[in-house]
Amino acid sequence: YAKKKQGSAIQIFNHALLKSFKEDAQIERDLQAALKNREFELYYQPLKDLGRQAYIGAEALIRWHHPKKGVLYPGAFIDIAEQTGMIAAIGEWVLEAACRQLNLWQHHNINLSMHVNVSARQFFSTQLYDQVWQLVTRYRIRPNTLILEITETELMEDVVYATHLCKELAELGVGLAIDDFGTGYSSMRYLKQFPISKLKIDRSFISDLSVSRESREIVSAIIAMAKALNLSLTAEGVETAEQESFLSALSCHQAQGFLYSPALREAEFSQFLRANTETPLH
Ligand code: C2E
Ligand code: MG
Ligand code: MG
Ligand code: MG
After folding, report:
1. Based on C-alpha coordinates, what's the Rg of the chain?
2. Per the count of CB atoms within 10 A, which of 18, 28, 147, 279 is most buried?
3. Which ligand 1 atom minimizes the distance to the CA of 42?
């Protein structure tokens, strides 16, 4: 009986695995057409400055309007795009769309920084610097309003090249943020080696704040360290007012999360800003 049971477990496993292979293959095929058919869209999640109590930036997050599956989140396709190399074209599209939007905001005197996620393959592609330089020039973007986000693990894949690229980006004036900070295996070494402008504390630490003393200690240590190293800091995944007050009390610079807003399409994002910006009294 045990043997029989084991056998069927393996069958179930194989079936699930086969299904996920087929799904991935389908996603891979559909990705080929997605750019051409304009199925991608950038959504924007606001970043709040906790000191000034004002929205000062946005993170661009990609969404895929899949013709059959509906809206797909990056978790469903970014890894596949990365493995197949399609991330190069998608990443270029993302950068361009984000810069075009940033230009529109600057044109309308909307003072926001734009955070753009960059995957490892894109970061190490030798074309990234030229792409960024051309976009900043073409869209007349103030370089310090553009911030690229990369995870620490990805950054550490090639320390020599990363050091070189970070320096070039810093000279151009474009910011670099470490995304999901605290979840990688890397050392603190890169904080002195790379000209990084910002850390984003991973949301796993924030969601634990009320129940885990360890998370509270880690978050306050990260805040103190960022301050000492003169790094800007954003807490990701802020969902409750308690989390916000904990962060405010330790004077964490910025917060991002569902407490304020999820990522929104451009039109709704503009509406959100209008509703949440105090009009100057003059
Ligand atoms: P990330 O860069 O860490 O982005 C934050 C993720 O957390 C987003 O998920 C956002 O919707 C979600 N989030 C924000 N606030 C909250 C909150 O309060 N609670 C919870 N539970 N979640 C929150 P999303 O949009 O699904 O993106 C997932 C990841 O996919 C991103 O993580 C980023 O690594 C990657 N990604 C997104 N857009 C792009 C892109 O254009 N290019 C690349 N290469 N990667 C992207
Ligand atoms: Mg990010
Ligand atoms: Mg990320
Ligand atoms: Mg993150």
Report:
1. 21
2. 147
3. 41
The model carries a pTM of: 0.93
Of 139, 143, 150, 46, nearest to 91 by C-alpha is: 150
Ramachandran angles phi, psi of 102, nearest 5°: -60, -40
Instruction: Determine the angle formed by the axes of helices 128-138 and 87-107, rounding to 10 degrees.
Output: 20
> Which of 42, 72, 96, 117 to mutate to test ligand 1, by most ligand atoms within 8 A of the CB atom?
117
Query: What does the pLDDT profile of the chain (282 residues) look like in tens digits?
Result: 444 555 566 666 677 878 788 888 889 999 999 999 999 999 999 999 999 999 999 999 999 999 999 999 999 999 999 999 999 999 999 999 999 999 999 999 999 999 999 999 999 999 999 999 999 999 999 999 999 999 999 998 998 999 999 999 999 999 999 999 999 876 777 788 888 999 999 999 999 999 999 999 999 999 999 999 999 999 999 999 999 999 999 999 999 999 999 999 999 999 999 999 876 555
User: ipTM of this model?
Assistant: 0.98
Residues 6 or more apart in contact with residue 279 via CB below 8 angstroms: none
Residues near ligand 1 with C-beta < 6 Å?
45, 61-62, 73-75, 78, 91, 94, 117-119, 149, 179-180, 203, 236-239, 256-258, 262-263
SS3 138: helix
Ligand 1: which atom is nearest the Cα of residue 239? 18
Supply the DSSP symbol for 49.
Answer: E
